[in-house]
Amino acid sequence: MPKPEQQPLIQIDGLYKVFGERPETVMGAVKAGQSKDQILADTGHTVGLKDINLNINKGEIFVIMGLSGSGKSTLIRHFNRLIDPTEGQIIVEGTDVMKFSARELEQFRRHKMSMVFQRFGLMPHRTVVDNVSYGLAVQGVDKKERLDKAREWLETVGLAGYEDQYPSQLSGGQQQRVGLARALCTDAEILLMDEAFSALDPLIRSEMQDQLIELQQSLHKTIIFITHDLDEALRLGDRIAILKDGELVQQGEPVDILLNPADAYVEAFVKDVNRARALTVETVMKPPVCRITADTIGEALTQMKRLPGNYGYYVTDEGYQGVICQRTLESEAKLDGDSPISEATLQEVPAIASDALLESVIPETLETDFPLPVLDADGDLQGELSRASLAEVLGESHTKDNAA
Amino acid sequence: MADSSWLTQFPQMERADLLAIRKSLDAAYREFSRSYGDLIESFFDPLLTFLIWFEKLLLNTPWWLVIMAVTVLVYVASRSWKLSLAVILSLLTIGYFGMWDNTMRTLSIITVCTLLAIALGIPIGILMARSDRAQAIVTPMLDIMQTMPAFVYLIPVVMLLGIGKIPGVIAVVIYAIPPVIRLTNLGIRLVDKEVLEAATAYGASPMQRLFGVQLPLASPTIMAGINQTIMMALAMVVIASMIGVKGLGQPVLKSITNQYFTLGLFNGLAIVALAIIFDRVSQAYAKRNQQHMQGIDNA
Ligand SMILES: Nc1ncnc2c1ncn2[C@@H]1O[C@H](COP(=O)(O)OP(=O)(O)OP(=O)(O)O)[C@@H](O)[C@H]1O
Ligand SMILES: [Mg+2]
C-alpha cells in the first residue's frame, strides 16, 4: 500500500494509449466506455491502455500481470517513453517525464532505468560481452572498465565463457540472460523487466528469481516485472497489478489478490495457483490470544483461566519460550503455586517462522494438537496457526474448482 | 460534321505550337548551359583531376604490380585462395589478349563511379529511411532514373559539359545509384524494431542508433545494393563510351559500327570478367562479415 507520507517513485495518472492513425478522434468513445473490440471494429484504432493510475514505490518489486494482449508491454514502455501516451501523466521522482527535452530524455534513460525485453532485443552484430556493456558504451564509459563490468555480470547470470560468442550462437534462455545482464550492467535504479524469465527452464528460473530478490534487497532497486505466471508474480511481487484489455482491474499485495479477487477475471487467474506454495504463514495466522507472561505458576494459572483455550504461549522478555497446558499448571499449582515457571512446566511444540511457506509447515500443523506458535526473525511471538485456518485457506481453491 | 473529327483523330496540339515549345525550351537550356557551363565544369574540376590521376596510376604501374595489388585486395576482402587465383588468371588472360590498358581505364572509372554512388547514395538512403516525406519525394525520382533511357539524360549532360570523362561519370552515376539508395532505405526500415528500441531504451542518441545499430544491421541489404550498383555501372560503360569515356566500351562501340564480331566479343567478355570479379569479391566480403547475423530473427 502506498504510504501517504512517502512520495511514490513512479506515478502514473490517467494514462490512455490508443494506437492508430488519429488517436485523439476516438478518445471520446474510449472515455465513454466503449469496449476495445467495438472501437477496433468501428474506427480501426486499438485501445492499448485505458485510464491507468498507478503508484510505484521506491525499492519494491511491482508485478504487472494479464493475458496476452492486455497491454502489459505497452504499459511498461511508457515508463521510459519508448511509447508516448495519448493522454495522461508519467511522473518519476516528481518530474514529469513528458516534459523532458530529447537530451534530458537520453540522460534519463541512460542513468535512471534499464530494460529487459520480451523478445530479448539483443544486437546480433555485437558479441555477448559487447551486448552486455552496450548501456555503458552509450554512456561513454571507457572500454576496459565497461568490459570488466560486463564480464562480472555475465558471470553472475551464469554465462562466463560465452563473452565472445554472438547472440545467434546462444539458446533462447541464454539470450534472455544476456538481456538480463545488460540491464543490470548499467546500475540503473529502476529495472523494467518484460517477461524477463519466460524463456528460462524452471531450475534457472527459480535461481534467477532468488537472485532478483537478493539484488533488490541488497541494492534497493525498484523493479517493474511483467509475467504471465502467477506463481512467479506471487513469489517476486511486493505488489501486483492485473490488466485486462488495457484496463487495470486490480492492484494490491499478493495476498489481497489471492484471497480477495476483484472479479471473475482475476479469480480465474488465481484459481490454479498452489496456495500452499504461494502464501506464507504470516498471511493466514491468527493473532495469539493465549499469551502468558506471568513469572510464577500461580499467576500463570490465573491468566490461563481468563483465556478462552486450555493452553497458552509462554512469553518472557527474551521472547517465546514454549507452550503451557492448563492441566500441567493445575497439577503443579497444587504442589507449589509460588514456584517460577521452569523448563519442566513447558511443553515442546515446534514453533514456525512467520515467513515460511504454508507448504513447509503442513506436517507440523497436522501433528500437533495445539495451534502452532508463529515467531518472527527475532524469536518474538507473532501469532498462531491452527489446523482449522490452514484447512480453510487451502480448501478454498478446491471448493471453487469443484463449483466450476 | 467537321466538328467531330476529334472522335477519329486525336485532338493534338498544333504542330507549330509544339515546335515553339520545343524551341523555346531548347533555347532556354542552351542559354543556361552557355552561361553556367563553365562554372559547373569548374565545380567538377577536382573530380576530373582525381579521375585522371587514378587512371594514370593504374596505367603507369607495371602490370604485374597491379595484378599483385588487386590479388591482395581480393584476398583480404574474401579470404579465399580460389577466388584470388581466378582473379589472377582472368587478368592475365585479359592482358594477353591485348586489352590491358582499356581494362585499366574501365576499372578506374568504375571504381570512381561506384565510390561516388556509395558516397551519395547511402546518405540519401538514410534520409529516406528517416523521413516518409523524403521517401515520397525521392522514390519517383529513382523510378525515373531507372527507366528513362540513358541516352535521354546524356543529351543535357553533354550540352552542359561537353564530351569527356565527367559527363561519362555523371551519366554512369545517375544510372547506377538507384539500387544503393533504395536498398539503404529498405535495409534501415527493416531493422528489428525491438533491437532499435533496446538501443533507445539505453539512451542512445540518434547518431548512436544510426551508426551503432541501424547501419550495421542494414549492412547486408546495403551491400546487396552496392553490388547491384557496381553491376549497373559496368553495364553502362558501353553507353558512356559514346560520350568519350575511354575503356573497354570503345572497342565494343567500334565493333558495332564496323561489324567486328570477335573484337566486340573479347571486350564484352572482359567487361563480364570485371563484373564477376567485383560481384564475387563484394559478396564474399559481405558474407564473411555477416556470418553471425544469419538466423537471429529473434526467438
Ligand atoms: N505498435 C502498435 N500498433 C498498434 N497496436 C499495438 C501496438 N503495440 C501494441 N498494440 C496493441 O496493444 C495491445 C496490447 O499489446 P501489448 O504488446 O502491450 O500486450 P501484452 O500484454 O504485452 O501481451 P503479451 O503477453 O502477448 O506480450 C494489443 O491489442 C496490441 O494489438
Ligand atoms: Mg508483451
From TrEMBL, chain A:
GO terms for cellular component: plasma membrane. Keywords: ATP-binding, Cell inner membrane, Cell membrane, Membrane, Nucleotide-binding, Transport. GO terms for molecular function: ABC-type quaternary ammonium compound transporting activity; ATP binding; ATP hydrolysis activity. It holds the Pfam family ABC_tran. One of its GO terms (biological process) is glycine betaine transport. It catalyses: a quaternary ammonium(out) + ATP + H2O = a quaternary ammonium(in) + ADP + phosphate + H(+). Coiled coil: none annotated. Its main location: membrane. It is a peripheral membrane protein. The keyword Membrane applies. Residues 10-270 form the ABC transporter domain. Its EC number is 7.6.2.9. It is found in: Cell inner membrane. It is an enzyme of class 7 (translocase). Belongs to the ABC transporter superfamily. The complex is probably composed of two ATP-binding proteins, two transmembrane proteins and a solute-binding protein. PANTHER family: GLYCINE BETAINE/PROLINE BETAINE TRANSPORT SYSTEM ATP-BINDING PROTEIN PROV (PTHR43869), GLYCINE BETAINE_PROLINE BETAINE TRANSPORT SYSTEM ATP-BINDING PROTEIN PROV (PTHR43869:SF1). This is Quaternary amine transport ATP-binding protein. It comes from Motiliproteus coralliicola. The lineage of its organism: Bacteria, Pseudomonadati, Pseudomonadota, Gammaproteobacteria, Oceanospirillales.
TrEMBL record, chain B:
InterPro entries: MetI-like, MetI-like_sf. GO terms for cellular component: ATP-binding cassette (ABC) transporter complex. Residues 103-282 form the ABC transmembrane type-1 domain. Keywords: Cell membrane, Membrane, Transmembrane, Transmembrane helix, Transport. It is found in: Cell membrane. One of its GO terms (biological process) is glycine betaine transport. One of its GO terms (molecular function) is amine transmembrane transporter activity. SUPFAM superfamilies: MetI-like (SSF161098). It is a multi-pass membrane protein. The chain crosses the membrane at residues 57-76, 83-100, 106-129, 150-177, 229-248, 260-278. Its main location: membrane. Belongs to the binding-protein-dependent transport system permease family. This is Proline/glycine betaine ABC transporter permease. It comes from Motiliproteus coralliicola.
